[in-house]
Amino acid sequence: MTADDSGAASRDTDTEDEAVSNTPVNDPPGAGDEGDENNIAVRLEQLILGADRRYTPFQAARGAGVSMDLAARFWRAMGFADIGQVKALTEADVLALRRLAGLVEAGLLSEAMAIQVARSTGQTTARLADWQIDSFLEGLTEPQDSGLTRTEITYPLVELLLPELEEFLVYVWRRQLAAATGRVVRAQDDVEMVDRRLAVGFADLVGFTRLTRRLEDEELGELVEAFETTCSDLVAAHGGRLIKTLGDEVLFAADDAGIAAEIGLRLIETMAHDETMPELRVGIAFGTVTTRMGDVFGTTVNLASRLTSIAPKDTVLVDQAFAEELGRIGDAPVSEADAAAAEKAAEEGTGAPPPTYRFALQPMWQRPVRGLGVVEPWLLSRRD
After folding, report:
1. At a CB cut-off of 8 Å and minimum separation 6, what does 294 contact?
2. Which of these, 63, 91, 90, 61, lies nearest to 1 by C-alpha position?
3. Is 244:251 a contact under the CB 8 Å cutoff?
4. pTM score of the predicted model
5. What average pLDDT does range 24-33 have in this prediction?
6. Most buried by CB count within 10 Å: which residue of 22, 80, 254, 322?
7. Helix or strand or coil: residue 367?
């Protein structure tokens, strides 16, 4: 779509529409539309979209009852390129514009929030679609003994998988929406819904840059995929949330410091037992975090990142606030000296049984951290 809202945009004649009706949305008008592969690409698009191309962007905006400017901003926010006035949109595109505009008109969303909804949905699903095509479908469309080419196999395969993948996507989305809603409802007040106190951690592969020079592309891809899979499984299994992956690094969060501590140590322990993986280091901080579009921001996130960069191999470093939070919830002693005294008194029969702690904390060297002042990291470990 373009931001041009002039009447000139509607001057598409039947002849012009006919000429561009088979041009892919992300290709420039006039791109080659002949040959078997191009024909199959058009058929695949019709299969996936469930409708034929009928509208130019101007016609779609007019049909949805929105300005061309707003329609263009929605379209770009979803991650799609400007396409001029090519007749490339379907009834579903008109309906999507109408729904977003309707939410704004009803006062349920501001225009800025509707743009954010379009952008967050577009970014998330774009990555999902790329992953499915690059990894999932590519592996299933290897040429078979039938003599069919990969292109010829793709259409019936997509036709078979499309409804199942769609149902599964909606199921997972509803599950995630229910979990996210529950977290918001449990927030103590309206401010905490946006600026919340969370434990935020980074896990980073050591020496990844050197690996990129030594490993073949396929080997490197397999290592990264194994790392991300292991991290996402461990984070989810222990009650955390994987915020994002950055190749050699993952960012996770948890509402509870004890959960984050367990995740950090489990990551180190799991990777240490995998001979194919480099060493790992983890940094975790606790504090106020701003959440936007599924991501997290703020000083707490920056501190967790800095702790990760200074952590020794196969260790977890945490900040002072995280150490204090573990003490507050009873997962680690506030003072090792007091804990030792309590244990000794219990052994001598002169005191009550000491609390059972899950974790131990050892203060490390104080050091200045750029942009954050002087910090005192704590080494996190399991309690013997």
Report:
1. 120, 124, 243
2. 61
3. yes
4. 0.66
5. 41
6. 322
7. strand
